[in-house]
Design a protein that fits this description.
InterPro entries: Beta-lactam/transpept, Beta-lactam/transpept-like, PBP_dimer, PBP_dimer_sf, PCN-bd_Tpept. With 935 residues, this protein is an alpha+beta fold. The chain has 34 helices and 25 strands. Strands 2, 3, 8, 9, 14, 20 and 21 form a 7-stranded mixed β-sheet that branches. Strands 16-15-25-24-23 form a 5-stranded antiparallel β-sheet, sandwiched between helices. Helix 13 (341-365) runs parallel beside helix 34. The model has no long low-confidence stretch (mean pLDDT 91).
Length: 935
């Protein structure tokens, strides 16, 4: 036995197998030794070195520059505030576990934020409506980019039909995207969270998704939060994983309502903004705050400053492990505007006072029916009907809601009947049902169910619909057959459904949506008010219940016991401007005014009424407030000074006078007889004074009298000048030539959004009095009257100077101008100026006014609406310092615009104080103001 073992060992050690085994044993030993060294001896060191391998950097945001008025009054600045943020640095064992934990955590903090009145930072491209439905808040390429991001595609071109989800990604609806994101394969949002909370969780989760490859980055949930919210987060830090309180700089605005249309606001950078700005400056990141509108946007590169930078290491799960270095940021430059903040405010208030005075006067006279005021309280959301169903609703609100629900049931039944069993043509419907169906069709277009771009407007059936000769049922059924309805939006099988099934699905869609649609409900409410089902007294009490007006026991008791009528109550509130013209959104409710330094061309005030609170749009949009602005019938987001265009009325006659004198078709002494009607052309247009007449007028007197016949004659002579016989095109060419000299066919040069005015292209006789298709902005009329007064056509701008953080002037601005004084001789200019002085000196609104003003009124007609009132002028007459242009859209008479101008000029020359302006309230109009063309 021992021999066998010995023999075996001898053979083994002498064989090649031994050599191979020995090699394996040695290698194995080496590996074991190496593993021991790596794991035990140097394990800690290697682990630390591994964690330090990943070096990252992030910017330290620079403080944004301030904005001041010409006198150094602070308009826009930064303020230290607290923000609530979340990062995604926690590790989970599964997506299911992560969704459950993160959603629960967000549900907790989002509920706290809502209860504490905080605003959620929301840059999500889908809004949740009050009725619980969803809609996109972007369109075009931005919407396509959003869809691509949602479905994880590199570009919109990669979007496709997904068999697994059944979603056509390129045409995915807001509802489909929300369902997709809330699904278990994505955010896994439980049905236990109510609709609004689930939506807000999606908003934050989607923002967090953008940082999935940089989990150290935080997502701001809310900015400028209260101490109460800060205390809650600090007290619950152990359970709110990843949620933190940070110090933050937020943008604040003084005089925000008065300057909103000029300064604009800031907000989180969008994808398209990032792409554009990053190309120019690589310092921009996708978490930046940038100017979104106005001067904040235009001067972004100056205001922004230079970001600092922090370098650090992150570990293998994206958490910061060590700070390497830090470079300080450099604050942005400060802007000094040409605007005088006090004059801007006074101008805004003077304009509001005059508009309120017109509204007040016309309600008093019956021109505006008092029922229109009652319905406007609901129609323009002065009263919030959504609050009627809240737990804190007053008894009055609950009673109104109860009556509404009964009427709503009846209305929906009538709509269903019209759509199905008993259709009637539009022209046989009551006004109420017609208004309801008008809204329904509009809703279908807005929801892109009815594809307005696909509709053939020349189609015979469409023409019958347009002429109100067929019923909604006939029209919508026909739309289906013509593929004008997007059936993918309806709950129907696209492949196998016939037209009847599609129509049934469309009817269900309509009835479901209008039941919860706030705007449709307003129509019901307004007709209930008209029928007396909701009393004016209830509406007045609700104004107090909802805090629209400061609570006053004595007034409330008088309303309740009947000693104070709702009409008298509202008239007083309108007179005192406790309820503003913008809130009512009746005609008039909008206006604009531009005041310019005649010597330098600097703009001293540029007001668009109404304004808005830019503080609620900065630092992350208050989506509810923004939605209210979008639905506000006074359209406060529109800059009426630079973007609204109307006919200029008789203010244009200064152009015609210039053309006539320069082209020698009239002289300063030529007289033209006005008989009240102009017989030299076929349509025989009348003078505004008809059946009266002005008799013989020279050019100065014609400007004073605003004589249409005089300027009809000028237009006719211009059309005959070239050939000796009337030629429409020749006349228009000359009118356009002199309008161009005044800059009326160009933008003015402003840094903010501006519409281009347009000079008439036809009918020189009518164009000469400001009619035809003349269309001008208020700021264009301002530059025009400044040129008339000074002989200089300025390029406007709002900037005075830019100063860096050290107080050094970086750039000084001075308005460029073109000298147009040689367009006329001095005596010809004198004739025009003299006529403008006579306009004002003979106007009742300027009687007893100590400042000598020259100007021109204008009244522009708009079919179906009150006339627009305009005034342009300058002061003092003998040595002009300022010019002014005022437009009150649908302001009935040019004299109302002139009154506003007088009050602004009075403030400028310290004849009136700010206190006086405030105390004027709605006292600007005396007597009944009806549509007037006596300008």
């Amino acid at each position: 036995m021992s021999y066998d073992i010995k023999d075996f060992l001898k053979k083994f050690f002498s064989s090649r197998l031994f050599v191979l085994a020995a090699v394996f044993i040695v290698f194995f030993g080496i590996i074991l030794a190496r593993i021991f060294t790596l794991q035990v001896v140097n394990g800690k060191s290697y682990q630390e070195n591994f964690s330090l391998k990943i070096q990252m950097k992030q910017p330290i945001n620079a403080a944004r520059g301030n904005i001041y008025d010409k006198n150094g009054k602070l308009l826009a600045y930064n303020e230290l505030a607290y923000s609530i943020s979340i990062n995604d640095s926690t590790t989970y064992s599964s997506t299911k576990e992560k969704n459950k934990a993160v959603n629960a955590e967000l549900a907790e903090i989002l509920t706290v934020l809502k209860n504490n009145g905080e605003t959620l930072n929301n840059d999500f491209k889908i809004d949740r409506k009050k009725d619980g439905t969803y809609s996109f808040n972007v369109s075009g390429s931005s919407l396509n980019r959003f869809r691509a991001d949602v479905f994880g595609k590199g570009s919109a071109d990669d979007l496709e039909y997904d068999k697994e989800t059944g979603i056509d990604e390129a045409n995915a609806t807001a509802e489909q995207i929300m369902e997709y994101l809330m699904g278990k394969d994505n955010f896994g949002i439980s049905s236990k969270y109510d609709g609004d909370l689930a939506y807000r969780i999606v908003v934050v989760r989607y923002a967090m998704l953008g940082n999935r490859f940089a989990r150290y980055k935080e997502v701001k949930i809310a900015t400028d939060v209260s101490d109460k919210t800060v205390a809650y987060v600090n007290e619950h830090m152990d359970t709110l994983s990843g949620i933190s309180v940070n110090e933050d700089m937020i943008r604040k605005y003084n005089y925000s309502e008065y300057f909103s249309s000029i300064i604009g606001y800031t907000g989180p950078i969008s994808e398209s903004e990032y792409t554009a700005l990053h190309k120019k400056n690589k310092d921009y990141t996708q978490n930046d705050t940038v100017g979104k509108a106005g001067l904040e946007q235009y001067y972004e590169t100056y205001l922004r400053g230079k970001n600092g930078e922090q370098k650090f290491y992150i570990d293998n799960v994206g958490r910061i492990s060590e700070i390497i270095s830090s470079t300080d940021s450099v604050a942005g430059d400060d802007l000094y505007l040409s605007i005088d903040a006090d004059l801007q405010k006074a101008t805004y208030l003077a304009l509001q006072n005059e508009i309120a005075a017109i509204v007040y006067s016309n309600i008093k006279s019956g021109e505006i029916p008092i029922n229109d005021v009652y319905t406007a309280l609901i129609g323009n959301s002065v009263i919030n009907t959504e609050h009627f169903s809240k737990a804190k609703a007053s008894d009055t609100e609950k009673n109104v809601l109860s009556v509404f629900k009964s009427r709503q049931k009846t209305t929906l039944g009538k709509i269903k009947q019209e759509l199905t069993s008993s259709p009637e043509a539009l022209n046989t419907m009551s006004d109420e049902v017609l208004d309801e169906f008008t809204y329904i069709i509009s809703m279908l277009k807005d929801d892109q169910v009815l594809l307005k771009n696909e509709i053939d407007t020349s189609d015979s059936v469409y023409q019958k619909w347009k002429n109100q000769k067929i019923s909604p049922k006939e029209y919508l059924s026909y739309c289906i057959t013509q593929h004008w309805i997007d059936i993918s939006q309806l709950n129907v099988d696209e492949k196998y459904a016939d037209s009847t099934e599609v129509y049934d699905a469309l009817c269900k869609y309509i009835l479901k949506n209008i039941k919860t649609d706030t705007e449709f409900s307003k129509i019901i409410y307004q007709y209930m008010i008209t029928r007396g089902e909701i009393s004016p007294r209830q509406l007045c009490l609700i104004l107090f219940d909802q805090g629209v007006l400061d609570y006053d026991d004595a007034t409330v008791n008088k309303l309740k016991n009947g000693s104070l009528s709702p009409r008298d109550f509202l008239m007083k509130k309108i007179y005192n401007i406790e309820i503003t013209p913008a809130q009512l959104a009746l005609e008039p409710c909008i206006g604009s005014c531009v005041v310019t330094d005649e010597k330098t061309g600097e703009i001293r005030a540029m007001v668009s009424y109404p304004g808005y609170d830019s503080n609620k749009l900065a630092n992350g949009v208050d989506s509810e407030y923004f939605a209210s602005l979008q639905h506000d019938k006074s359209s406060p987001l529109l800059n009426y000074a630079t973007q609204q265009k109307t006919a200029p009325g008789s203010t244009f006659k200064l152009v015609s006078a210039t053309a006539g004198l320069a082209e020698n078709v009239i002289t300063t002494s030529d007289q033209i007889r006005c008989t009240g009607i102009y017989n030299d052309i076929s349509n025989k247009p009348k003078c505004w004074i008809y059946p009266g007449s002005h008799g013989l007028d020279n050019v100065s007197e014609a400007i004073r009298d605003s004589c249409n016949v005089f300027f009809y004659t000028v237009g006719n002579r211009l059309a005959q000048k070239k050939t000796g016989s009337y030629n429409d095109a020749n006349g228009i060419d000359l009118i356009q030539k002199y309008a161009h000299i005044y800059g009326l066919d160009q933008k003015t040069g402003l840094e903010i959004s501006e519409s281009k005015s347009s000079v008439a292209t036809k009918y020189p006789v009518m164009a000469a009095i400001g009619q035809s298709d003349n269309n001008y902005t208020t700021v264009a009329l301002s530059r025009y009257v400044t040129a008339v007064a000074s002989g200089k056509k300025y390029n406007y701008q709002l900037m005075n100077k830019i100063v860096d953080a050290d107080g050094k002037t970086v750039k000084k601005y001075k308005a460029d101008y073109e000298d147009i004084s040689d367009t006329l001789t001095s005596s010809q200019w004198d004739a025009i100026h003299s006529g403008m002085r006579e306009v004002v000196s003979t106007m009742d609104r300027f009687q007893g006014f100590d400042i000598p003003v020259a100007g021109k009124t204008g009244t522009a007609q708009q079919t179906g609406h009150a006339n627009h009132g305009l005034f342009v002028g300058y002061a003092p007459y003998d040595d002009p310092e300022i010019t002014i242009a005022v437009r009150i859209a649908n302001g009935y008479s040019s004299h109302n615009a002139a009154t506003a101008a007088r009050n602004v000029i009075s403030y400028y020359y310290k004849e009136t104080s700010m206190k006086d302006i405030k105390e004027m309230k709605a006292a600007g109009v005396n007597g009944n103001i009806r549509n007037s063309v006596a300008d």
